[in-house]
């Protein structure tokens, strides 16, 4: 039986991560909490807007209302990576060789491993950021499409056009596809080899959470009463195929998804705080957490694939231990 | 759900460069009114106050991908409001300052069309600052100045000390011609009582029009009267008699006004006719309609029904019981461009209950 160790905090949880086996919870007020032989915390920002886990460097990268980009590593070691002034840092992404990218207004900044920063100005706001899995290449979600840059070279960016506002972006782990979340209730995808479009629509709500399953075979998404899981095994991705609908609930909406690191299982968080784990093959559901005070906004698996750190809109966070 | 209690009111402040927006913002931020405001500005620029709750944001207009040209939202506001609302408790209300040339419509529509924004905030009112001296010039060279007035719930007619009483009357008549439903305040140095600007509930169906007890009652000739439905300042137009009710010459003396308003009134309506009608009108004429507001009396309905809209977005709800002695009549005003007044009137009349 799964057990839950709760951590009741005040405020909206933006991201969770395990660093060296210790669960971290990054809150919107700028404080990052951790359960490391007791409850400890570090204040990183005056207002934290975005955070993402750097798997290779084992650190959490955060961006704030204070115009700072910070890194928080094991034992809560902190490093200020960039300070941009009074602008909000609205997105961060992790690249290869210690590179990171972050967004302020219409500018995407890349900070290379050596600390050098390069700016990429755009005609419209930089809404979302993601690095490709291989090579020094990153994508920007923007109005009417996405732009792919090669920051290490002077190469011309690749423009991917699709009408509408694109708010988030992710590359498939094999690097063959780019998928964006949109202001409307849909995902859009491009097959990079030939620029073919993929429309993934039918969501009753905006999609705010995406997660690739092991080896990138599936893409799980929020924005519906079920987790919508698109098949990406075929060379054309999900085109012409129906997605899986996992963990359907009549009276709740999926707000967060997080795929198991190696098995075809997804942890699904709902707007009422419930968390289920569902296996793709037989759609078998296991209740991991009962409803809480608010929507699940963040989840992360540990390296041992045994625990899930979750965070909520209302601050009721915790760690689920699947082995009990 | 507790949305109703936790929705944060948002005031939108429009007005041309030099109309006094920054002065008003500084007052909102510095005066002791017991409320904390988060302010979203385009540039920190001249706001001389250091405050964590002032957020700079690049105006970013997104057309929605639904084939409707008037369905636009402000993408940057969605992002900033979402960010601000993740740390509630720091402020009681939000003020959005727009650039001088901004179209107020996408700003307002953001608060209706984006589900996340809508669940956490509610549009309180659109306030337009107007420079009394330069308005005629502004109207000549831009459509935005006119849109800002047409779209406003409250018009602050500022810098009245720079014009003569005569000029002020003309400017006010122009504002009134563009927007007969707005509340007008004459001020100097943006010295309007902040209660007249903030927490107006102009988009709140339970309060809308309740603030304006004389909504459209005063006159039948809506194109030209100088005296608003609710003018609460001292003015003397009754003393200078100048074709008060048929003052087309005055309003149209400013040739550059392209916005018009159509005010309709009728008897009790048949809901089976009225609802399909309003839906059809807003679908067909949506791009031309900037705002619509109305109080509708339905036959055999003890409660009055209020409607309000922005382009194609229409909302309506029962507001309260008709008071004793209150006349059961329906009143509706459209503010927009290229409106066919005759056709609107005839089709509106056809919705009356038999």
Automatic annotation (TrEMBL), chain A:
Source species of the chain: Borborobacter arsenicus
Signal peptide per UniProt: none
UniProt name for this protein: WD40 repeat domain-containing protein
Pfam families: ANAPC4_WD40
Limits of the Anaphase-promoting complex subunit 4-like WD40 domain: 261-322
Keyword Magnesium belongs to the record: no
Keywords assigned by UniProt, alphabetized: Repeat, WD repeat
From TrEMBL, chain B:
Keyword set includes Transmembrane: no
Keyword vocabulary terms for this entry: Chaperone, Hydrolase, Nucleotide-binding
Top-level taxon of the source organism: Bacteria
GO molecular function: hydrolase activity; nucleotide binding
CobW C-terminal domain residues: 259-352
InterPro entries linked: CobW-likC_sf, CobW-like_C, CobW/HypB/UreG_nucleotide-bd, P-loop_NTPase, Zinc-reg_GTPase_activator
Catalytic activities: GTP + H2O = GDP + phosphate + H(+)
Family, as annotated: Belongs to the SIMIBI class G3E GTPase family. ZNG1 subfamily.
Function text: Zinc chaperone that directly transfers zinc cofactor to target proteins, thereby activating them. Zinc is transferred from the CXCC motif in the GTPase domain to the zinc binding site in target proteins in a process requiring GTP hydrolysis.
Protein name per Swiss-Prot or TrEMBL: GTP-binding protein
């Amino acid at each position: 039986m799964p057990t839950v160790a709760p951590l009741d905090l005040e405020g909206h949880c933006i991201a969770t991560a395990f660093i060296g086996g210790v669960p971290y919870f990054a809150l919107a007020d700028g404080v990052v909490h951790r359960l490391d032989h007791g409850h400890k915390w570090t204040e990183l920002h005056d207002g934290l807007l975005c955070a993402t886990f750097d798997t290779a460097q084992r650190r959490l990268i955060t961006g704030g209302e204070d115009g700072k980009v910070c890194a928080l590593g094991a034992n809560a070691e902190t490093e200020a990576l960039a300070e941009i002034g009074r602008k909000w840092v609205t997105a961060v992404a992790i690249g290869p060789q210690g590179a990171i990218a972050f967004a302020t207004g219409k500018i995407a900044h890349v900070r290379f491993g050596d600390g050098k920063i390069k700016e990429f100005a755009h005609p419209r706001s930089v809404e979302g950021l993601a690095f490709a899995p291989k090579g020094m290449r990153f994508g920007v979600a923007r109005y009417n499409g996405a732009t792919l840059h090669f920051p290490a070279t002077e190469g011309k960016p690749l423009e991917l056009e699709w009408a509408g506002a694109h708010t988030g972006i992710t590359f498939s782990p094999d690097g063959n596809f780019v998928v964006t979340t949109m202001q409307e209730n849909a995902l859009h995808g491009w097959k990079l080899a030939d620029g073919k479009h993929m429309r993934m629509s039918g969501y009753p709500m905006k999609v705010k959470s995406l997660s690739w399953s092991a080896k990138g075979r599936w893409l799980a998404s929020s924005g519906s009463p079920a987790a919508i899981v698109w098949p990406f095994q075929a060379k054309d991705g999900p085109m012409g195929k129906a997605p899986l609908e996992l963990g359907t609930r009549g009276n709740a909406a999926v707000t967060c998804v997080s795929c198991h690191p190696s098995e075809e299982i997804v942890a699904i968080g709902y707007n009422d705080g419930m968390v289920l784990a569902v296996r793709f093959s037989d759609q078998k559901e296991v209740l991991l957490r009962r409803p809480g005070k608010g929507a699940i906004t963040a989840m992360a698996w540990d390296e041992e694939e045994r625990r899930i750190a979750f965070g909520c809109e209302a601050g009721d966070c915790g760690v689920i231990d699947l082995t009990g | 759900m507790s949305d109703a209690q936790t929705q944060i009111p948002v005031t939108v402040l429009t007005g041309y460069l030099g109309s006094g927006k920054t002065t008003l913002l500084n007052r909102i931020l510095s005066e002791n009114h017991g409320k904390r405001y988060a302010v979203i500005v385009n540039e920190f620029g001249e706001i001389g106050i250091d405050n964590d709750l002032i957020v700079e944001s690049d105006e970013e207009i997104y057309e929605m991908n639904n084939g409707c040209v008037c369905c636009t939202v402000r993408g940057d506001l969605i992002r900033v409001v979402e960010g601000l609302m993740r740390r509630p408790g720091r402020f009681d209300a939000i003020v959005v300052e727009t650039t001088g040339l901004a179209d107020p419509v996408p700003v307002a529509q953001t608060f209706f069309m984006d589900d996340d924004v809508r669940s956490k905030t509610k549009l309180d009112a659109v306030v337009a600052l107007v420079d009394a001296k330069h308005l005629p010039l502004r109207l000549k060279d831009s459509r935005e100045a006119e849109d800002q007035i047409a779209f406003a719930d409250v018009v602050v007619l500022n810098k009245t000390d720079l014009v003569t009483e005569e000029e002020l009357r003309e400017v006010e008549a122009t504002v009134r011609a563009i927007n007969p439903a707005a509340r007008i305040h004459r001020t100097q140095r943006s010295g309007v009582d902040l209660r007249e600007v903030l927490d107006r509930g102009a988009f709140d169906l339970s309060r809308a029009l309740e603030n304006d007890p004389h909504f459209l009652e005063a006159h039948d000739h809506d194109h030209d009267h100088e005296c608003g439905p609710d003018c609460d300042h001292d003015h003397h137009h009754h003393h200078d008699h100048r074709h008060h009710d048929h003052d087309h010459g005055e309003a149209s003396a400013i040739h550059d006004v392209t916005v018009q308003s159509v005010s309709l009134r009728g008897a009790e309506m048949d809901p089976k006719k009225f609802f399909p009608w309003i839906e059809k009108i807003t679908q067909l004429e949506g791009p031309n309609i900037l705002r619509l507001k109305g109080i509708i009396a339905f036959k055999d309905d003890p409660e009055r029904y209020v409607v309000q809209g922005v382009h194609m977005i229409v909302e309506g709800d029962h507001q309260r019981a008709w008071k004793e002695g209150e006349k059961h009549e329906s009143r509706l005003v459209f503010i927009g461009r290229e409106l066919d007044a005759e056709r609107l009137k005839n089709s509106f009349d056809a919705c009356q209950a038999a």
